[in-house]
Structures are given as C-alpha cells and as structure tokens.
Amino acid sequence: MGYRLGVDVGGTFTDLLLIDEESGATHRAKVPSTPGDPSIAVLQGIDLITQRASVDPGELSQVMHGTTVATNAVLEGKGAKVGLVVTEGYRQILQVARSFVPGGLAGWIVWPKPEPLASLENTIEVKERIDARGQVIRHIDQAALRQELERLRTHAIEALTISLMNSFTNDEHELEVARLAEEIFPDIPISLSSKILPEIKEYERTLTTVANSYVRPRASQYLNNLSSELGRRAPGARLHILRSDGGLMGLEVASAAPVNMLMSGPAGGVSGAVWIASQAGYSDLLTFDMGGTSTDVALVQQAIPKVGRETSVGDLTIRASSIDVRTVGAGGGSIAHVPALTKALRVGPQSAGADPGPAAYGRGGTEPTVTDANMVLGYLPSGLLDGEMGLDGEAARGALEPLAEALGIEVERAASGVIDIVNENMFGALRLVSVQQGYDPRDFALVAFGGAGPLHANALGRLMGSWPVIVPPSPGVLCAFGDATTRLRSESSHTYIRRFSEVSSQQVLEELERLRIDAAAELVSQGVAESDQEIGYSIDMRYHGQGFEVTIDVDPAMLTDELLDQTCAKFEAEHERLFTFALDQECELVHLRAIAQGARPKVEALQIEVGDEDASSAVIATKEIYVEGERAPAKIYARSRLRANNRIPGPAIVSEMDSTTLVLPGHEARVDAYGNLIINPVV
User: DSSP characters for 199-268?
Assistant: First the structure.
C-alpha cells in the first residue's frame, strides 16, 4: 500500500490531492499554475503536498494527472508542423472539409475559415487504393512514394500523418507507407489513421489523426520530462494520464495518442463529482466546475457521465470519445467591461488568468474581474489558501470603480451586475447539456466545485430549478480528486455498416468479442489482469438512409441471440427522446465499440463527526454583505468546524482553504455525513 496522488492543472491554479490507500485519509494543496511550463507547478505542488503530509515522495505508488498541454497546443496554435500522406485524389481533404459554418444568420459572411493543421504544401499523395470491403484494388507505387517522401523531407516537418482511403477496413497500405516513412523520417513521430481512429468518414478520420500529430511532439516532450523528474522524486510511482472520456491511460499510450487527452482536465472534475455525489445518495447530476479561467458543465445520469463521440477545442472538432462537457469563458478571472458602442455591461470571455490575475490578487492586475466583484460584495475572505495568498479589497474596489462610473451606478450595484451576467452565461451552458438534450434540469442535482463554483452555485441552482445544490468538501481540488479516484480505460472500435436484414446477432457478437480482446490486451500491457477488468460495449446506430448516428450503450445482459432486437428498441426509444419521433425504417449498424476498464480504486469516503442542527460553534465572524440588491448581515462559518446534521441558514458564507460557498437568503445548507453541503430552498 502507498499513496495515490491526483494532479489537475488549471489556467490559474494547479490542484493536488493525496490519498492514503490504506486509511483513506486525504491531503490537499493548491499552487499557482505556471503557463510557460505546467510541469514546474506540478513538481512544486508535489514537493509541497508531500512535505505537508510528512510523506516521503518515494511512498507514492501512482500519480494520476489531468493535463491541458494538448488542449493549449491547439488553442494557442503552437503545435507541430505536420506532414500528411493521403490517397491519390484526396490531397485537398482538409481544405474541402465539411460544409458547415458556425454562427447565426449570415454568419458565413464574416466567418474566417480556420487554417488546416496540415497545410496543402505539406500534403503528398500515394498511388494506391483499397475498396470499402478491404480488398486491394491498386498496390502502392513504391518508387513514386519514396520520391514524394524525400520531397516532403525538405519541408522540415515535425510530425507525419498517414491517412489512406478505407484503411479502417484494411491497414495493410498504411503500414507499408509507415515502414518506408520511418526510413526517411527516423526522428519524428508517425501517426496512422487506422490506429488512431479506425472508422469510416475519411475527413473526420484524417482530421483526428492530423490533430494527434499536431499535439504529439509537445505532449510527448511534456510527459517524458514530467515522468523523468517524477522518477527522481518518486521512483516507485507510476504516471497515468486522464483521458477525455474520464478513464486513465499509461504514459506510452498517452504519448502515442495524445488526441485522447484534449479534454483531460474537465473530465477529472466530472469523475470526482460522480464519486462524491454517489456517497451523498445522488446519481442524476449536473456538474458545475468554475475555475479562474472558464466554467465546464456536464450531465450525469444514473452515475454515468454522457460520453460523446466528438471533442471540440476552439475551432477544432474531432472524432474522439470524451465526456460531453461544455465550456464557457466564465471564471473568477473573467474580465468585465462596458463597450463604448453599446454601453452595456459584458463579462468575459477574456480572462486575467494566473498572471497578473484579478486585481484582488495584488499582483498588478487592474482590470475588473468576477473575483473582484465577489470581493467587493463581501463574499470572499481576506486571504486564500489558509492565508498563504492575501486578497486586496481596496484594489478590487479600485478596479470596479471605472466600471461603475461608465454605468452611472454605485460600485456594489456594478459588482452585483457582473455576478448576474456571469451567472447567466453559465446558465446558458447548463441548458446546453440539459434542456437542449431533452432533459429536465429539475430532475437533477447540481454539484458545484472548482475554486469559484461554490460562490455561484446557489444562484445557478435557483436559475435551473436543480435541487439540491451539492458542494463537496475541498471543492477547489475536486478535479484532482477525480484524477485520483478514476481507473484505467481502453477502447477498441470498428466500422461495421450493416442493415439488420443483412446480419445476425451471432455475427455482431463475434465482432464485439474481437474488439473486447483488443481492448483488454491494451490494459493487460499496462499491468491490469483480465480478471480485474470490466468490459462494456456500445453501438453507433441509425435508420437506413440517415446521415448521422446515435450511440447506444449495450448492457452485458443484452449479449444474446436477441441482441439486434433489443438494440433496435433502445435506439428507437433514444431517437424519440432526442428528436420527438421515430421512423418506420430499418435500423442499421455503423460502429461497434468495446471498452475495457480496470478495477475501481479502493478509496473510502471519510465520514465526519456527528453533531446536531446548531452550527454556531463553527461561526468565526459576522460581516455585512451586499446580496440581492441590499446590504445584510451574514455569518461566516469555518468549514473545518462543521459537523454532520449542522444547518446553515442564508445569507451565510462557508470558508475553507480552497474555496468559499455562498448560501443565499431564503435557502439553507445542511451538512451530511460525509461533509457535503446540501443546499435547498427554505419551504
């Protein structure tokens, strides 16, 4: 037994959570992020948390890391120079793309089409062809291919993608091209579409594989450097990286396929929220993760997060499984401004980030942010991180005064307006994952976390009608907790387009078994025995003739001769839920998928000391705050002093090391057995 460490790198802070695998005891730490090199903050945090816990770093057994390094490479446009090899006739595949233009009415007039991640001048063609059933129609012209690769070498590319037509059915030609490319490009990473995404739709497959090549050198360098430094500090620790779909993968897999960690950071928070809420007895959730730079929201039903087949980062949308997280540029560091043209208050998406940060941080920031507004309204203490990071109330007020002058109102009203607008922005994101997906948010609890989430959670619960609002212990490091409590995951998929009249349940079962073997083998290579694995399946389906698919989860109990009938029934029910109708049309299979997961970590939730309803022993101060348009006295509670069964009537503030919770008037927070704050309206 040893210690598991979860590490989550955010735009403002890097969060760490250390778990004793034997006792379940936890230790937490937050350090400012280092955007120039995120590993610096990670290593500083490891030194800090092991020192605080009096733990020898050599006792660390596993380090689970949620990272934004691949995401940032895309957002900042700082990925590799990618070369692309395609089948003859498909050189413009990335330029042609799909005929979809984002935006509202007349959006096409002003929409600047993003530049492809692999330029046309770095794209070469191969004279070859495989048909849709995997039969070789035209063998590779080796001499012509070598000539083209030699020409591409003069372009100083940093990564190479090979994506040939119909390689999802037969990877023979991609492997042949790769063998020759390795001779000519011995020092750069090569990504094959048949390995990264063995599925139909050549554009999506090519784009996803190019994206993998684009982030691969930077991600690999970061992971290798971190692993090397970690090896010096904690030689016995195994480093695992969080996948976009909420699972873990080993270092080698992450370095080869970093496209699967584009949403690594937000996935950790959702995993942690599911674990915490299940202890409190809730399985249908809306997760609300508000940090310093952005807010991530997701929907969880029956303790299972919704996993989508697309991942979007900025203008890039690729085919890779990820938890269906929606992100808005609304965080504690979001900057408020009044445009000269409209004279209407706006908040975000620009952020003060970690450096210099909000004015209240006292690091030279001067622009008004959401954090500054919360400070002016009296919701924040005089310092964060147990007093290690002081807050400057005068600087926060000074930053908001020009905003108030531009609006012609007092500073408190301007600050209240900033909070109302950022709440509306986050309300819109929560509607995207609930109402617009056919779910009633009133059927879901709202789990709030992140450094800023608990400050806004009560207001969001009221807007959504989502009760109760659950604020877990240590909400500011819940993403790190999710990293530390998730498990290894592997996925194997295959395009299998068959109408139901063309295939039998037994044939589909044989295909699923083949995929299971592949997925299980990858986990075995990472040290997880087959006996410790849990296998799941899903099938992408559509009506024959449709141009899109719906993913249907396949319960192991469905793996019988009735498989096709049962999956068709589930598909039609889901189609009707999503689109309000079903068709009298034959069902069709598109993709089959097997998911292997390792054993769940044995981490027990610690119960807190039991008390009665009176929480007065946890009161540390009383202060005047500005809430709902007027000033009112509010008690401040130290969360560490709260006991199970305590009740906290609003308005009130609950303070702790990594976050602050605001309970609004007309609401009450109850402390459950595990220390969660359960907020409900007072009836």
Answer: SS-HHHHHHHHHHHHHHHHHHHHHHHHHHHHHHHH-TTPEEEEE-TTS-EEEHHHHHH-GGGGTTHHHHH
Q: What is the 3-state secondary structure (H, E, C) of 135-176?
A: CEEECCCHHHHHHHHHHHHCCCCCEEEEECCCCCCCCHHHHH
Torsion of CA 247, 250, 251, 254, to 10 degrees: -50
Average of pLDDT values for 82-101? Answer: 89
Q: How many CB atoms lie under 10 A from the CB of residue 388?
A: 10
pLDDT band at 383 (very low <50, low <70, confident <90, very high): low
> d(Cα 367, Cα 179) in Å, to the nearest integer?
55
Structure tokens at 178: 């790769």
pLDDT band at 109 (very low <50, low <70, confident <90, very high): low
Helix axes 505-525, 563-579, angle to 10 degrees: 80
Domains of the chain, start order: 78-213 (3.40.1360), 283-467 (3.30.420), 489-597 (no CATH), 607-683 (no CATH)
Do residues 83 and 155 make contact, with C-beta atoms less than 8 angstroms apart?
yes
Per DSSP, helices labelled H in 526-651 are: 563-579
State the CB neighbour count (10 A cutoff) for residue 436.
10
What does the alpha-carbon distance between residue 353 and residue 292 come to, in Å, rounded to a whole number?
7
Give every CB contact of residue 280 below 8 A, 6+ residues apart in sequence. Answer: 470, 672, 674, 676, 678
pLDDT of amino acid 103: 61
Q: Which amino acid is at 156?
A: A
Q: Which residues of 332-346 are buried (b: 16+ CB within 10 A; e: fewer)?
A: bbbbbebeeeeeebb
**Average pLDDT value for residue range 561-582:** 92
Residue with tokens 């609002």: 469
User: Which residue matches tokens 């990858």?
Assistant: 522
> What Å distances lie between residue 328 and 296, 322, 348, 630, CA to CA?
7, 17, 9, 29
Q: Are 152 and 166 in contact (CB under 8 A)?
A: no
pTM value is 0.80
For residue 213, the model assigns a pLDDT of 96
The answer to whether residues 45 and 328 touch, using CB atoms and an 8 Å cutoff, is no
Task: Report d(CA 539, CA 567) in Å as an integer.
Answer: 8
Q: What is the DSSP letter of 599?
A: P
Look at residue 456 and tell me whether its pLDDT is greater than 90: yes
Using an 8 Å Cβ cutoff, are 260 and 244 in contact?
A: yes
Q: What share of the chain is helix, strand, coil (3-state, %, to 5)?
A: 35, 30, 35
Distance CA 241, CA 256 (A): 12
38-52 and 202-233 are packed helices; what angle lies between their axes, rounded to 10 degrees?
Answer: 40
The answer to whether the beta carbons of residues 542 and 550 sit under 8 Å apart is: yes
Backbone angles phi, psi at 412, to 5 degrees: -65, -40
Closest by Cα among 623, 643, 647 to 633: 623
Of residues 447, 333, 448, the one with CA closest to residue 32: 333
Q: What is the pLDDT of residues 345-359, one digit of tens each?
A: 888 777 776 667 788
527: left (phi over 0), alpha (psi -120 to 50) or beta: left
- Residues 538 and 491 sit within 8 Å (Cβ to Cβ): no
C-alpha triplet 525, 526, 530: angle, nearest 5°: 70
Specify the DSSP class assigned to residue 21: T
What is the predicted pLDDT for the residue at 101? 63
3-state secondary structure of 358: coil
